[in-house]
Design goal:
Blueprint (H helix, E strand, L loop, with lengths): L3 H14 L8 E5 L4 E5 L5 H11 L20 E3 L10 E6 L2 H13 L26 H8 L14 H5 L9 E4 L3 H12 L27 H10 L1 H6 L4
Parallel strand pairs: 2-4, 4-5
Antiparallel strand pairs: 1-2, 1-3
Helix pairs in contact: 4-7
Length: 238
């Protein structure tokens, strides 16, 4: 069955940003450093924005730092609008895709009414129905059926955002698993703060498993690895 609301959103983004996608790629532009920072959701993007923001007078108020994303002072570009800055360096950070999906589940699917960061359920208007507080296995079964052009930014394949058709290859790709050292390389190269702020740790629910691997059954692990196979292979998470 065709999802007309989704098609309308993707077509609108294609006309506006040159990218047929529910969530087009997002880039922070730092003109004084001739640098583009691609924002990959659920890969320390709040910490990265907050660290850069504090150094250029863009601040946040919430303890999680999530309001840094809504600050109007940013110069943000979407889709193919970065073509005008092809002479700027481009960097991004990636993460184990299976750990990233668990992080998405914990912060976007699990809904806590007393959470000041999310007074409303995040996926309430998403074209595909993802019910609040649904079991992780049910969430995964929904995600594996959603193609990348229709995917929300928090579970869209990273390779589709980084190496997709007509996209330029980044000059540097760091890893969340090595973010302290990788961020220092970026900071030294582009004169950014060396210490990365650690924000958006999320709601603490002691009933949840401690490790991301524990969210998966063997069957679910197989489904997730199939869905994110290209991420695993291209980004080196075998």
């Amino acid at each position: 069955m065709m999802n007309f609301e989704l098609i309308k959103t993707c077509f609108k983004n294609w006309l506006k940003y040159g990218q047929y996608a529910y969530d087009p790629n997002e880039y922070v532009v730092l003109h004084d450093k001739q640098l583009l920072v691609q924002i990959i959701s659920k890969v320390a993007c709040t910490s990265i924005k907050a660290t850069i923001g504090k150094s250029i007078g863009i601040d946040f108020e919430l303890p999680s730092g999530l309001d840094i994303h809504r600050n109007p002072k940013w110069h943000i570009l979407y889709g193919d609008h970065i073509k005008a800055y092809s002479h700027y360096d481009l960097i991004c950070f990636v993460r184990n895709p299976l750990a990233r999906l668990v992080s998405c589940y914990k912060q976007r699917v699990l809904f806590y009414e007393d959470d000041p960061d999310f007074p409303e359920y995040y996926f309430k208007d998403y074209p595909y129905t993802i019910k609040a507080n649904t079991p992780f296995s049910d969430f995964l079964n929904k995600v594996v059926k959603i193609p990348d052009h229709a995917a929300d930014r928090h579970f869209k394949s990273q390779h589709a955002s980084i190496f997709g058709k007509k996209l330029r290859t980044p000059d540097f790709i760091g890893r969340l698993e090595n973010i302290e050292d990788d961020w220092k390389r970026v900071a030294n190269r582009y004169d950014l703060p060396e210490r990365l702020l650690k924000l958006n740790s999320g709601h603490v629910d002691k009933q949840l498993p401690d490790k991301w691997q524990e969210f998966y059954t063997d069957e679910d692990m197989g489904k997730a690895r199939k869905r994110f196979r290209v991420d695993i292979e291209k980004l080196g998470y075998e």
